[in-house]
């Protein structure tokens, strides 16, 4: 019978220190125990579960695949412990303030509603205040502390002091009339879209995204159709119905009667929604929300770790580990973080 109590938080903390420092000596100094003590603890853990967690070499140590798996889940558990302790301390001192959350124009209403409803479910005593603004202004307001976080579509002119957590990736598809001859294709060849596929929303609402989209069009040989910028989605679909070209829309978007969507052949573009926040001094409700999204990512078969600012490094000058996420096939995000 497995004794689950044998695995403790301290083991995860030690393993994380070893992975990030690269040597037992440096890890021991970081967690304030002796080198022999941390070695003994990890060795006991290996013997208990009959697996090797470390590759021990003359110039340092690295994690084995078993060690990587344990650390990936362990980071989430360690962060969860910190989140719970912070939440309890906040409730104890009676300093619960409203969660101030910004959002940009291209963020889907259902995504914002999901964020708010999830926050209220896991943190029922917290008021949520949502405020729309331009992407650049949202970054500034998060950086100054006026907002606790902001939902934006990527890419952004990234403030080096902020952390970006991608919470949603939605494929982009071509919107066209259902009776259009191209609708007979399961996926539209790129050469058939030249001069027909328009860019409507991004020119005014998100300049960085517009530039990125032009780059992607060019990379596959699509010359975009010239269009007048608009944020009115019904107007965009009406334009398609009137045979004035095609439009890129989110997969699953609600369409007017007579319209359909098709993917672009050989292309997997996504529109990514991210939560931008400070890596420290987080609102406790926001910390619990991030934990909820980490858990969802693990349940879906991927391991999600926020992208930290480049300025955050470990004590030995090495960058902290970046996101480790399972990739399924080749895809190129329209709005990857820069």
Automatic annotation (TrEMBL):
Sequence segments annotated as region (Disordered): 312-338
TM region(s), chain numbering: none
Family annotation (PROSITE patterns): HTH_LYSR
Record-level GO cellular component terms: protein-DNA complex
- Ranges where the HTH lysR-type domain occurs: 7-64
The residue ranges flagged as biased composition, category Basic residues, are 319-330
What is the name attached to this protein's record? Molybdate transport repressor ModE-like protein
């Amino acid at each position: 019978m497995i004794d689950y109590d044998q695995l403790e938080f301290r083991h995860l903390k030690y393993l994380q220190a070893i992975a990030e420092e690269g040597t037992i000596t440096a890890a021991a100094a970081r967690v304030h125990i002796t080198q022999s003590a941390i070695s003994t603890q990890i060795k006991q853990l290996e013997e208990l579960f009959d697996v090797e967690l470390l590759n021990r070499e003359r110039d340092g140590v690295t994690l084995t695949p078993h060690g990587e798996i344990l650390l990936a889940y362990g980071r989430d558990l360690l962060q969860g412990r910190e989140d719970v302790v912070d939440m309890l301390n906040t409730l104890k001192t009676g300093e619960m303030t409203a969660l101030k959350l910004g959002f940009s124009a291209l963020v889907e209403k259902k995504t914002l509603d999901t964020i708010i409803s999830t926050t209220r479910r896991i943190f029922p005593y917290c008021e949520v205040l949502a405020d729309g603004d331009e992407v650049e202004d949202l970054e500034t307001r998060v950086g100054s502390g006026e907002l606790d976080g902001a939902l934006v579509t990527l890419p952004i002119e990234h403030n080096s002091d902020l952390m970006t957590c991608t919470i949603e990736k939605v494929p982009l598809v071509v919107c066209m009339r259902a009776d259009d001859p191209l609708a007979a294709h399961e996926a539209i060849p790129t050469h058939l879209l030249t001069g027909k596929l328009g860019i409507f929303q991004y020119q005014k609402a998100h300049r960085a995204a517009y530039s990125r989209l032009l780059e992607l069009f060019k990379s596959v040989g699509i010359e975009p159709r010239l269009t007048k910028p608009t944020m009115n989605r019904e107007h965009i679909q009406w334009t398609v119905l009137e045979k004035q070209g095609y439009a890129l829309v989110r997969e699953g978007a609600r369409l007017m009667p007579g319209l359909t969507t098709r993917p672009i052949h050989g292309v997997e573009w996504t529109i990514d929604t991210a939560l931008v926040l400070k890596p420290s001094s987080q609102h406790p409700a926001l910390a619990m929300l991030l934990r909820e999204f980490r858990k969802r990512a693990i349940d879906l078969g991927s391991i999600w770790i926020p992208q930290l600012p480049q300025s955050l490094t470990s004590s030995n000058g090495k960058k902290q580990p970046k996101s480790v996420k399972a990739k399924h096939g080749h895809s190129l995000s329209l709005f990857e973080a820069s």
